[in-house]
Amino acid sequence: MKECEKFRIWYHDECERLISDSEGKITCKRCSRLKTSKTTNDKAFILAESRDSRQNATENELEITSQHQQNLQEALRRSKEQFEIETAFMESIKIIMRERNFKVTDVTPD
User: Its domain of life (predicted)?
Assistant: First the structure.
């Protein structure tokens, strides 16, 4: 953050200069985020930054939750496929054992 000497307000380092809108509010030219006076309204600036941070965190959490849900769905699909493979394998073993006259009990996986 940098402080503008003329307006006594803070702005982002990456913003080259400040502009004033029709209501006289000073904003960064690049990011168009409202910057408030350090001396008169520092709390408003902190609250605005905090709100932006919370919104970004919420968006990140939603993205992570969505990715986690996709991972769980993929794991469930793989588990179902694996169960079907194991069941088919056990059934084939039962058939072979019957053909060779072995005593066959239920060997279905739990």
Answer: Eukaryota
Q: Give residue 110's Cα distance to chain centre.
A: 36
pTM beyond cutoff 0.85: no
Token digits of residue 86: 């194991």
The β-bridge relationship of strands 9-11 and 2-4 is antiparallel
Q: Which residues contact 11 (CB under 8 A, 6 or more apart)?
A: 1, 2, 3, 4, 18, 28, 35
Q: How far is CA 60 from the centre of its chain?
A: 3
CA distance 10 to 37: 7
